[in-house]
Amino acid sequence: MTALLFTIIVCATGMLAGFLGALTGLGGGVVLVPALALLFHVDIKYAIGASLVCVIATSSGAAAAYVKEGYSNIRIGMLLEIATTLGAILGAFLATRVSTHAIAIVFGLVLLHAAYQSLFGKKQDAAALVESDALAAKLRLAADYPVGEQRQAYGVRNVPAGFSLMFGAGTLSGLLGIGSGAVKVIAMDRAMRIPFKVSTTTSNFMIGVTAAASAGVYLGRGYIDPRLSMPVVLGVLGGAFLGSKVLVKAPVRALRVTFGVIILLLAIEMIFNGAVGKV
Amino acid sequence: MTDERLEIFIGNLLRVGVLVSAVVVAAGGALYLAQHGRELVNYQAFRSELPELRNLPGIFMSAFHLRSDGIIQLGLVLLIATPVARVALAVVGFYLEGDRLYVVVSLIVLAILAYSLMHAA
Known about the structure:
The complex is a heterodimer. By secondary structure, chain A is mainly α. Chain A is built from 11 helices and 2 strands; from the N terminus they run ααααααββααααα. Chain A has one domain. In chain A, strands 1-2 form a two-stranded antiparallel sheet. The longest helix of chain A has 26 residues, at 44-69. Chain B is mainly alpha-helical. Chain B has one domain (3-34, 54-120). Chain B is elongated, with a radius of gyration of 18 Å. The relative contact order of chain B is 0.15. Chains A and B meet through α1, α3, α4, α9 and α10 of A and α1, α3 and α4 of B.
């Protein structure tokens, strides 16, 4: 394959990854790593390096659009970034010591559970007003977000549980070079009872900061190839822009199903590749 | 400064940072394709990136000498810097709001990022 053809096809793949990543808060890396590795036979280390860049591009590119819509909660994001960045450093440290096969399988199992919850789990009332618990009130995490023409207030709960899950999300991000958006959304949507749209956009907002915490390490290790990353970044930015336009109009239920199907596919991918030693 | 204005300001900063990065990456990419577009590529065997593209001084030098891979890598470094800038700006924003708790929270995040990025270099 010539460099020109390779660049065009990878750019198109990046667009798809950026679109799905922005739509679901997953970050895009999860779609990109398997695509690059399985379809284009790119070495997994190059794929992870490009994925990390893709993750930052998705987060920063779509966050600007989300912030204007008023979905992201900057206080929740900043507080939980303490956990994700510390986790990312631990993850980068662990990456040199722990078998990624084992981690991939464990992560795949966690995602299988999350996919089940999203697709078949009992649906929580998205419109429910939730009062904050004592700690969340002290941290002033409650806010509101637009629903139709009005603004809907929401409360926040279980900050310690969310914080712990975020530390885990950061560790996985640093270990595998992914955004770990799935775990971030679970921490906010499930544990902290934050509305789904606020969870996905705040997650998307946080992913870039988390990825930046491990990006320097990957750059230093030579896992970021400019010739491969170039079409990925440009494609992803275009896709993320489109994804952010769709999110504003999409209903919560359709988002959940999309989210569930994607993490189910991701789970199978992770377990399979972990078992055969490809990740 | 209100929360909403702060968030919109940060959102705009991210957008500008991403646009600048994309323009630099695209410029390097165009140069790369013009020079090497017809060559065959193969990413199956991992070889670590050239040493000069793995640290900031090397990347700046390569870009300065108008090497296409150096220019792309510079754009990628700018992209990596956008989330870091966003945290730094949040520190200022929360300070202007008089929100001491979240000034401290943002400073902790910034310190962790600085530690991790310096550790890598």
